[in-house]
């Protein structure tokens, strides 16, 4: 590792040009490839929140993601459309993350590994697709890697320099960690990692105030968003949603919540390889070979060279607890479920390949994987822009029907129906048996009734016949996100 007193030497102009070029590439490529549609109920809820903030109405979805919502509100106030306002914060964050990612990797593993990591990051399909989705997860990228960079800076600076620039260290990193909690609640897991790093600084480096700086920074970071947020939100409603006493009707229909330990282990590997490193680029199992070979070579050599030194265990201290959370509590079918693991793996892969001390092999491996990831990213972007989610597809199918027809939705489809077709007739219900209520019997009188399979009890019920089916998310391992449209039979007992 380089001498710690050189940590803040001004970078060469060529390095600055390279980083700005990569950041501009990330930003422009994401803006150009954005989809004009909101694909999910979660993103629609954020769009509704831009019109009227109401946490009890799931506008935005609880617990509210206040930091993300603040940036979307700023973008909306600046004149961007609702879709672009929801996407822009993630795109800018993913572009700016190039800088802390490079300096973090350079400080740990050297310039060569850092440059390779930035190139792979810029074209990685998981990072690319996450930035296109109108969700808060891509916004985590910059504050996360900036935090890691600042904390590492605190550990490496000698005492006399650390006192001169104490803010640009653990305190700044802890503030970013506190801000991240306002973007996504699961980032609280990183507080454990921050505590472990502080203990290392206390015991190994004899820095007595490091725990105080960490706690002070976390409290300050949380306070920046929590104080104004709680002024406008009912604490009782917030606690009800967080503790599960109040559940959202707009939840993912497909998840890995019921998967066993063995299945979850495979889902983690599958998610990283397929969504993170383009293992399913051409939808054929043979094409797992390339990313798996590079993954195995990079990570394998990194583990072979692993020593009990800061440069080797610093990143694992942050990623192992996060991996544990993903393993036990994350929805591994979601492409954003392991998003922050992907850039971390990129750094370790680049470092492992660089540790082989074969410059030509290193450059060929990085170039090959970068070209592969770029090709797959472009392919997936095209599919994403052309594809229509099953929820939106079933909504479009319903609105083309004449006025004498009526449709009942459940879950996510109803939310999209409200957003895209506010003037059309449709209701959301929780179960098929609700149609027997007098209110709904009057509504459906002399009308042809359609109902979606999202509603429990519809599939397999003799009162309904299937008339259409819509599916999507072909990158889900062993599962398909499908919604069927049913029609109530004229001789049904529910009919008036």
TrEMBL record:
Transmembrane segments: 17-38, 67-92, 104-123, 135-152, 164-181, 187-203, 210-231, 286-304, 316-349, 361-381
Keyword Ligase: no
Keywords: Membrane, Transmembrane, Transmembrane helix
Keyword hit for Membrane: yes
Source superkingdom: Bacteria
Protein name listed in UniProt: Glycosyltransferase RgtA/B/C/D-like domain-containing protein
């Amino acid at each position: 590792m380089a001498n710690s007193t050189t940590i803040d030497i001004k970078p060469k102009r060529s390095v600055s040009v390279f980083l700005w070029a990569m950041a501009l590439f990330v930003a422009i490529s994401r803006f150009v490839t954005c989809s004009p549609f909101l694909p999910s109920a979660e993103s629609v809820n954020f769009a509704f929140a831009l019109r009227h903030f109401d946490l009890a109405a799931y506008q935005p979805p609880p617990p509210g993601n206040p930091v993300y919502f603040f940036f979307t509100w700023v973008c909306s106030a600046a004149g961007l459309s609702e879709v672009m306002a929801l996407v822009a914060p993630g795109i800018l964050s993913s572009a700016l993350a190039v800088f802390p990612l490079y300096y973090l990797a350079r400080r740990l593993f050297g310039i060569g590994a850092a440059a390779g990591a930035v190139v792979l990051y810029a074209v990685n399909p998981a990072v690319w697709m996450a930035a296109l989705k109108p969700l808060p997860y891509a916004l985590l990228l910059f504050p996360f890697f900036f935090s890691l960079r600042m904390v590492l800076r605190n550990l490496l600076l000698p005492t006399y320099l650390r006192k001169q620039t104490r803010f640009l260290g653990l305190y700044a990193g802890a503030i970013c960690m506190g801000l991240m909690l306002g973007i996504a609640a699961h980032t609280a897991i990183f507080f454990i990692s921050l505590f472990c790093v502080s203990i290392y600084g206390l015991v190994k480096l004899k820095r007595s105030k490091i725990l105080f700086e960490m706690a002070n920074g976390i409290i300050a970071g949380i306070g920046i968003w929590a104080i104004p947020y709680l002024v406008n939100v009912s604490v009782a409603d917030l606690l009800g949603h967080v503790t599960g006493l109040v559940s959202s009707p707009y939840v993912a229909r497909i998840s890995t919540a019921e998967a066993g330990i063995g299945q979850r282990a495979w889902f983690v590997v599958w998610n990283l390889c397929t969504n993170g490193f383009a293992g399913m680029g051409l939808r054929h199992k043979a094409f797992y070979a390339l990313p798996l070979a590079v993954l195995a070579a990079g990570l394998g050599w990194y583990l072979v060279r692993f020593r009990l030194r800061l440069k080797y265990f610093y990143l694992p201290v942050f990623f192992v607890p996060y991996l544990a959370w993903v393993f036990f509590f994350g929805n591994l079918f979601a492409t954003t479920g392991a998003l922050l693991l992907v850039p971390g793996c990129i750094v370790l892969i680049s470092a492992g390949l660089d540790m082989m001390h074969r410059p030509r092999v290193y450059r060929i491996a990085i170039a090959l994987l970068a070209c592969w990831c770029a090709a797959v990213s472009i392919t997936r972007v095209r599919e994403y822009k052309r594809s229509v989610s099953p929820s939106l597809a079933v909504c479009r199918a319903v609105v083309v029907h004449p006025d004498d027809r009526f449709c009942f939705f459940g879950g996510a489809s109803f939310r999209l129906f409200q957003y895209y077709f506010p003037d059309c007739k449709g209701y959301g219900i929780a179960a098929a048996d609700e149609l027997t209520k007098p209110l709904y019997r009057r509504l459906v009188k002399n009308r042809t009734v359609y109902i979606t399979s999202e509603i429990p009890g519809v599939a397999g019920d003799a009162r309904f016949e299937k008339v259409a089916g819509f599916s999507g998310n072909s990158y889900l391992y062993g599962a398909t996100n499908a919604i069927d449209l049913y029609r109530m039979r004229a001789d049904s007992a529910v009919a008036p």
